[in-house]
Amino acid sequence: MLGWAQWMVLLVAAQRLGELAYARRNEARLRARGAVESGARHYPLFILLHGAWLLAIFLLVPADRTPFWPLLVLFLLLQVARVWVVATLGPYWTTRVLSLPGAPLVRRGPYRWLRHPNYLIVAAEIAVLPLAFDAWVIAIVFSLANALLLHHRIGIEEQALAGRG
Predict the structure, then answer these.
(1) Which of 30, 24, 34, 46 is nearest to 156 (CA)?
(2) Residue 36's beta-bridge partner residues?
(3) Does the predicted model carry a pTM greater than 0.90?
């Protein structure tokens, strides 16, 4: 029997798979235009982290656990923010660090106020979804792992974007 947590994980997994397909299409187009990837070696760690996070929620949250609705609603609002980020970047949105020389930095949408809004949203998602099901350990462990990876990735991304205005 699947509970709320398991259904949410399946929905999030489907969303992420759709995003990966969109990202791959964008990656191919960007590479064809001369985009250069930075930090490719850490990319599999993100796939592992996100997959393990979803698997942990799916397997460790009891199927009969009722969600704390305000946090589940917050998670759904984070999905709206996530779509806003993806839509704002459009053909430049990827899951890898790709930089197209000469392309201007995007400064509209959430990028008017934040340098890395997607990373803030992802950090919130990783904490909020398990917390909605009272899975504190999952929230803490994966938030810490994500923070370590993001610290590394943001440095790579800042270096890749340096000099672009």
Answers:
(1) 46
(2) 99
(3) yes
